[in-house]
Design a protein that fits this description.
The complex is a heterodimer of chains A (115) and B (119). In chain A, strands 2, 4, 5, 9, 10 and 11 form a six-stranded mixed beta sheet that branches. Chain A has a five-stranded antiparallel beta sheet with strand order 1-3-8-7-6, with no helix packed on it. Helices cover 0% and strands 55% of the residues of chain A. Chain A contains no helices and eleven strands. Chain B is 0% helix and 49% strand. Chain B contains no helices and eleven strands. Chain B is globular and about 35 Å long. The N and C termini of chain B lie far apart (34 Å). The mean pLDDT of chain B is 88. Classes of the chains: A mainly beta (115), B mainly beta (119).
Chain lengths: 115, 119
C-alpha cells in the first residue's frame, strides 16, 4: 500500500514555462512534506518542505502548495530551466513515536525541461 | 557541497560474497543514519535506521541477518550485504540528519548511493 503517490512518472515542459509536479498521500498522520531532487547516479538533494500548519511555502523559483483536505501537494517551478531536469521525489513524515523520523517517498516524477 | 559521503559508488560482486558499504557524515555528527534501497522506477524504501552505539532498527520485511548495519561512531555507519544474491542488486543510499537540528523535521542529507550488481 503506497502512502505517497506520484501518479505522473514523467513531465515535459518548455524552458521558461511553469512545471507543476503533483503528489498525493493517504496517511492522515503525515504532517511534514518535503521535495527532493535527484540527478542520475547521485543521491537525492533536499529542495523545499512544508509543514501541515501551512498551505504554501516559497523559496525562489520553487513553491510548494499543500491541500490537507484533499491530501494533495504540488511543487511549482517558475520559470523552469533546463538544469531543473531531474527526478523529483515527494516525501512525507509524521505520526507518533519513532515513526516521526521516517520519510515515506513517492516513486518520483522525471521532469524534462526543453530549451 | 556534500555533507554525506558514501563509498563505494558502485560495486560488482559474485553471488555468495559479502559487500560492505560505508556512509560518513562529513562535517557533522549523526547519531542516526538511515539506509534506503531503490529499485528501478520505484520509490526509495527505508530498510533500517542505524543508531550509534546500539542496534539498528529494521523495517518490516528486511532481513537483519542479511543486511548487517554497524554504527560504530558518530560519523560512520556501514551496511554489509552478506551472501549477496542477484536479487540483492539494487541502489543503496544512506542518509543522515544533522544532530544540531532539534526538530525531527530537519531534512535528510543523502549520500550519492551505491549501485550494487550481484552476478
Amino acid at each position: 500500500d503506497q502512502q505517497v503517490k506520484q501518479n505522473s512518472p514523467s513531465l515535459s515542459v518548455q524552458e521558461g514555462r511553469i512545471s507543476i509536479l503533483n503528489c498525493d498521500y493517504t496517511n492522515s498522520m503525515f504532517d511534514y512534506f518535503l521535495w527532493y531532487k535527484k540527478y542520475p547516479a547521485e543521491g537525492p538533494t533536499f529542495l523545499i518542505s512544508i509543514s501541515s500548519i501551512k498551505d504554501k511555502n516559497e523559496d525562489g523559483r520553487f513553491t510548494v502548495f499543500l491541500n490537507k483536505s484533499a491530501k494533495h501537494l504540488s511543487l511549482h517551478i517558475v520559470p523552469s530551466q533546463p538544469g531543473d531536469s531531474a527526478v523529483y521525489f515527494c516525501a512525507a513524515s509524521g505520526g507518533s513515536g519513532g515513526s516521526n523520523y521516517k520519510l515515506t517517498f513517492g516513486k518520483g516524477t522525471l521532469l524534462t525541461v526543453n530549451p | 557541497g556534500a555533507v554525506v559521503s558514501q563509498h563505494p559508488s558502485w560495486v560488482i560482486c559474485k553471488s555468495g560474497t559479502s559487500v560492505k558499504i560505508e556512509c560518513r557524515s562529513l562535517d557533522f555528527q549523526a547519531t542516526t543514519m538511515f539506509w534506503y534501497r531503490q529499485f528501478p522506477k520505484q520509490s526509495l524504501m527505508l530498510m533500517a535506521t542505524s543508531n550509534e552505539g546500539s542496534k539498528a532498527t529494521y523495517e518490516q520485511g528486511v532481513e537483519k541477518d542479511k543486511f548487517l548495519i554497524n554504527h560504530a561512531s558518530l560519523t560512520l555507519s556501514t551496511l554489509t550485504v552478506t551472501s549477496a544474491h542477484p536479487e540483492d542488486s539494487s541502489f543503496y543510499i544512506c542518509s543522515a540528519r544533522r544532530t544540531a537540528h532539534i526538530s525531527y523535521n530537519s531534512p535528510l542529507h543523502f549520500g550519492n548511493g551505491t549501485r550494487l550488481t550481484v552476478t
